[in-house]
Design goal:
Layout: H1 2-8, H2 14-23, H3 31-45, H4 52-84, H5 96-122
Helix pairs in contact: 1-4, 4-5
């Protein structure tokens, strides 16, 4: 609910609020699973396993990535909600037009985000 208030200044209908609550990213790392994955990568470089500095760097990078993903999700939610949902709520549920608009908006947002990531990763200048 706080996320919805911060994004639009008004509370969205219950269906949107439930959707936000269900799809909210967890900001906590599951350290045991993460350590297993990173241990196999680090152990190739060091036969004794990851050092404390290596672990700290790995968790720092994972924290940054989680912050980026949460920020990306918040921007996506804000952008598509403002674009697709009428400011004056007539119904408690999204109508068919709003549903399809949100679906297209999310699809375009992810497509463009992936395209930008590929361009930045390849080192090519933008077109």
């Amino acid at each position: 609910m706080a996320l919805a208030r911060r994004l639009s200044g008004v509370l969205p209908p219950p269906l949107v609020t439930d959707w936000i609550r269900r799809t909210r990213f967890k900001t906590e790392l599951q350290s045991s699973n993460f350590a297993l994955v990173t241990h196999s990568k680090v152990s190739m470089a060091s036969p004794t396993g990851p050092t404390a500095v290596d672990k700290e760097q790995i968790f720092g990078m994972a924290e940054k990535e989680m912050e980026y993903r949460v920020e990306l999700f918040n921007k996506l939610t804000h952008s598509c909600f403002n674009k697709c949902v009428d400011k004056r709520y007539k119904e408690s549920e999204l109508n068919m037009g709003e549903n399809s608009c949100i679906d297209r908006c999310v699809s375009k947002y992810w497509h463009v985000t992936n395209l930008i990531g590929q361009l930045l990763g390849s080192g090519r200048p933008p077109m």
